[in-house]
Amino acid sequence: MAAPSGADNQEHWSGKFAFIMAAVGSAVGLGNLVRFPYIAGDSGGGAFVLIYLACVLLLGLPVLVAELMIGRRGGGSAIGAVVRLAKNENNSKLWGIVPAIGVVTTFLVLSYYCVLAGWVLNFVFLSVQDVFSSVGSGAGLGAVAYNEMTEAEISGQLGELVSNPWQMVIMTGLFMALTIFIVSRGIKGGIETAANILMPIFFVLLLLLTISSLINGNDAAALDFLFKPDWSEVDGGVILRAVGQAFFSLSLGSAMMITYGLYMNKDEDIPGSARIVAFSDTSVALIAGLAIFPIIFASPVLMESVLAEDPGLGLMFESIPLAFHQLPFGGIFAIAFFIMTIFAALTSAIALLEVSVAWFDGDIDVSAVQRRRRRIRGAIILGGLAFLIGCMNALSQVPTSVANTFFNTWEPLSFIALFDGMTILDAIDTLTGSVLLPIGGVATAVFAGWVISAQVAKDEIGFKKASTFTIWRTLVRYVVPIFIGIVLVYGAIIGPMRARADAGSEAAQVIEEMTTPSE
Ligand code: PHE
Questions:
Q1: C-beta of 27 in contact with ligand 1 (< 6 A)
Q2: What is the pLDDT of residues 320-334, one digit of tens each?
Q3: What ligand 1 atom has the least distance to the C-alpha of 29?
Q4: Ligand 1 closest atom vs CA 344
Q5: What pLDDT, on the 0 to 100 scale, is given for residue 6?
Q6: 248 lines ligand 1 (CB under 6 A)
Q7: Percentage of residues of the chain with pLDDT beyond 70
Q8: What is the rounded average pLDDT of the residues 415-425?
Q9: pLDDT at position 339 over 80
Q10: How far, in Å, are 6, 42, 190, 502 from residue 366 at the CA level?
Q11: Half-sphere exposure for 36 (CA within 13 Å, toward CB)
């Protein structure tokens, strides 16, 4: 029986290198450079890193193989692919709901991803401006280290940005426009070309920054922070964060890798490519930690502030600029750092938008010209919509002391314990990262392991050894669903409810103490 396929005139990657660059580009992004370092530092250092590595190997890698297999075998769009494969196995078309939720998930991720990327873009401009102003002032290149600014000015840059809604909206819009432009040019002319140019530059910059950080920084403290296991921090919530982070970082559970699988050629090696993507993504997360922390910890003051509190986004936008401030040529490093980050963010945002555009493109056979038109229209409409939600997300970040934007006090999902006290950006981040991606991952694993027959899976994936196939199938059939199921119920439902109850009873106790008249 011939393999089913979607639209005949579907575009394909021009080769293995192009696919790998695009897939690695989608995986490597703000998740590796921003999310991973601060979650790891905050969730038990080495203990978190070990749990994370296990998640990538036992849960992420098998699901990645499953998603690429589903995409390539099914063809068309992510939803069409799953529906077609389900029908072929005489199973329900309702399986299409799984990638449909995935499309919504990627769209939601894009709506806040573009805001954070907008911040990074703003910092690219700031660092370039600063270097030029210090050179212009006659200080010369040798003295460039954010020389024109005081420390207070540097650490105030993030505060200034979030207090300025228009600035955020403009930066988000600029970033989104770039993403729309690339996606509208299609697979070969847009996504591939962007990844082929941006990713190699990204790797060179990451390498240079890491070497300089290790030479100039406090390596011992950084290694301690990142890799010394502190098991006392580990609970259900931390394990859920590791699972969520692994799926977010590898772009899994969201129909994204199914979509990139659609464009894979039949002769490409799925297990080999999946290994390269997982390995590169995980290495970048770990190396990013080594590019960031030694240089931050070179300053005792910065080290103390990072260790004392959960730095969150302040790590990237306050601590790092301050750390570069101390280095000779610091301004140049700052430019390199933010350019590297924006490149990684751009190749991920392209992938996020591509998922919805591929769905919008439709699963029908139309002429190449019509397809191209539909793509441009889809990229503009969907990218524009994500930008509008992005504006709400941006406005939610404005401090209430500066202005009331409505969105900075609105807590849309706080009736659920998991989203206690979260404004829209944090709620979307938690909803997608801790709930939708893991659920999407489980559903995809169940589909690949239980619905698709062993014969079809074996034929499409093409593992070289029979035993590897058996291991893969056991992981997607049993390990992924059972493990993530338990972690989800505990981390997303029981844990937060307990925390809420504890907070409630503490409050009750305080009220009781306050209202009980003292003798
Ligand atoms: N993996 C990307 C990152 O680490 C984010 C992403 C998630 C991209 C889901 C596509 C799909 O930043």
A1: yes
A2: 888 887 777 788 888
A3: 12
A4: 12
A5: 47
A6: yes
A7: 92
A8: 86
A9: yes
A10: 12, 51, 20, 58
A11: 34
Taking Cα atoms as reference points, which of 252, 239, 243, 232 lies closest to residue 494?
A: 239
| Cα 114 to Cα 170: distance, rounded to the nearest angstrom | 11
Cα(515) to centroid(ligand 1), Å = 50
- What burial class does residue 139 get, using C-beta atoms within 10 Å of its C-beta: 0-12 exposed, 13-18 middle, 19+ buried? middle
Task: Kindly state the tokens that stand for 504.
Answer: 């409630």
Residue with tokens 């938690």: 430
Mean pLDDT of 485-511: 79
Q: If you measure from the C-alpha of residue 149 to the centroid of ligand 1, how many angstroms do you get, rounded to a whole number? A: 34
Mean pLDDT across 437-445: 94
Q: What is the pLDDT of residues 123-168, one digit of tens each?
A: 999 888 877 666 555 444 444 444 456 677 777 788 888 889 999 9
C-alpha 23, offset from chain centre: 13
Share of the chain above pLDDT 90, in %: 58
Using one digit for the tens of pLDDT, what is the confidence trace for 182-233? 999 999 999 999 999 999 999 999 999 999 999 989 999 999 988 888 888 8
Report which ligand 1 atom has the smallest distance to the Cα of 27.
1
How much is the mean pLDDT over the chain?
88
| Cβ–ligand 1 contact at 397 (below 6 Å) | no
Instruction: Name the token pair of 109.
Output: 């991720």
Q: Is 26 in the pocket of ligand 1 (CB under 6 A)?
A: yes
Which of 248, 357, 444 gets mutated to test ligand 1 (max ligand atoms within 8 A of its CB)? 248
Mutate to test the pocket of ligand 1, among 249, 359, 431 (most ligand atoms within 8 A of CB): 249
Query: Higher pLDDT residue, 4 or 439?
Result: 439
Top mutation candidate among 34, 104, 352 for ligand 1, by most atoms within 8 Å of CB: 352
Burial of 446 (0-12, 13-18, 19+ CB in 10 A): middle
Q: Is the Cβ–Cβ distance between 50 and 229 less than 8 Å?
A: yes
pTM for the model stands at 0.90
39 lines ligand 1 (CB under 6 A): no
**Separation CA 176–CA 184 (nearest Å):** 12
Please check whether residue 196 is in contact with residue 23, taking contact to mean a CB–CB distance below 8 angstroms.
no
Residue 442: the pLDDT is: 94
CB of residue 109 inside a 6 A radius of ligand 1:
yes
What's the 104 CA to ligand 1 centre distance in angstroms?
14
- What is the rounded distance in angstroms from the CA atom of residue 119 to the CA atom of residue 416? 29
Rounded Cα gap, residues 497 and 417, in angstroms:
6
